[in-house]
Design brief:
With 304 residues, the chain is of the alpha+beta class. It has seven helices and eight strands; from the N terminus they run αβββααββαααββαβ. The protein has two domains: 121 residues, no CATH class; 139 residues.
Length: 304
């Protein structure tokens, strides 16, 4: 059986809580593939679909609990079914179903990372990976504050070594021309695409005309996501840092992934019940309030 990858952790312990097997009445002649299936513990092995179906045999038996059954495999018998009504050691667990949305440009590794992050119950003190630590150290050593505007100025967290980028203007221009054709069909979308407002707010600036693209220049394709809420239509401009340059590498391929410093959704949901009244608010253009260091602005060009 081929090993595709090795990872320190797949998800949180399974099952979520341990439970008693005395009432299951498992026959004594049954040899279980995992005799400790009822104990909450880390996942040892993740089988792909092409392996899983080859391991299954035809024999299946119902247990005394109508929601559980025994299935024979080449590795031994396994217990399957719904475990939510099993008696546990006085503990209960919340079960959350998550949906990972895959974009056509996503690579398998990023899709799997997104799935693991969604499924994982957050730890009280999360350990940072080496790259996350390096990214944090680089930020602390290079960030500054613009005294004229009060905004923070940050550098892009490039990985150590030379930046491996080539020409990305071709794909960015094609997608911009496609966006312009969309504007002709949808005048309302064009009016909502408030790029001029960003220019007037000094969030973006015009690039020198006629300047030739080179290896220290990257053009970001962009598009608009329309959201309708409370009889108002809003648009969010999204920039694609995963668009490949001519050497098949993108801007994001050259950047370190920093630690997730946002409050975990799990903690927010738990704290939401602590008080009688809860407040929610939105910081307008929050991610645009940080300026990019002038040394790195050429890596965030776009067509308009």
């Amino acid at each position: 059986m081929p090993i595709t990858c090795i990872t320190e952790r797949v998800t949180s312990n399974l099952p979520i809580v341990s439970f008693n097997t005395e009432n299951l009445s498992i026959p004594s002649d049954i040899c279980l593939a995992n005799p400790d299936f009822n104990k909450s513990r880390p996942v040892d092995l993740l089988l792909g679909a092409e392996v899983f179906w080859d391991l299954l045999c035809d024999d299946r038996r119902r247990l005394s609990n109508p929601s559980l059954f025994l299935t024979k495999t080449l590795l031994g018998w396994v217990v399957g079914g719904a475990s939510y009504n099993l008696e546990s050691s006085g503990r209960s667990g919340n079960r959350v179903a998550n949906l990972a949305i895959k974009d056509e440009s996503d690579e398998l590794q990023r899709v799997m990372e997104k799935f693991w992050i969604q499924e994982e119950i957050p730890e009280s003190k999360k350990k940072w990976f080496k790259e996350e630590i390096e990214c944090e150290e680089q930020f602390r050593n290079t960030y500054m504050r613009d005294p004229s505007e009060g905004r923070f100025v940050v550098k892009l967290p490039f990985k150590k070594g030379n930046v491996e980028l080539r020409d990305s203007s071709g794909v960015a221009l094609r997608r911009f021309l496609s966006l312009e054709r969309r504007f002709k069909r949808d005048r309302k979308l064009k009016d909502l695409y408030a790029m001029q407002e960003l220019i007037q707010s000094n969030i973006v600036e015009r690039a020198p005309e006629g300047e030739v693209a080179h290896n220290t220049t990257y053009y970001l394709p962009h598009s608009g996501i329309v959201k309708e809420a409370r009889q108002k239509v809003k648009i969010r401009i999204v920039y694609d840092g995963w668009a490949k340059s001519t050497n098949r590498l993108s801007l994001n391929d050259n950047l370190m992934t920093g630690p997730n410093l946002q409050t975990e959704l799990f903690s927010l949901l738990i704290r939401f019940k602590m008080h009688q009244i809860a407040f929610s608010f939105d910081l307008e253009k929050m991610f645009l309030q940080a300026k990019i260091n002038p040394e790195d602005t050429n890596y965030q060009r776009f067509f308009w």
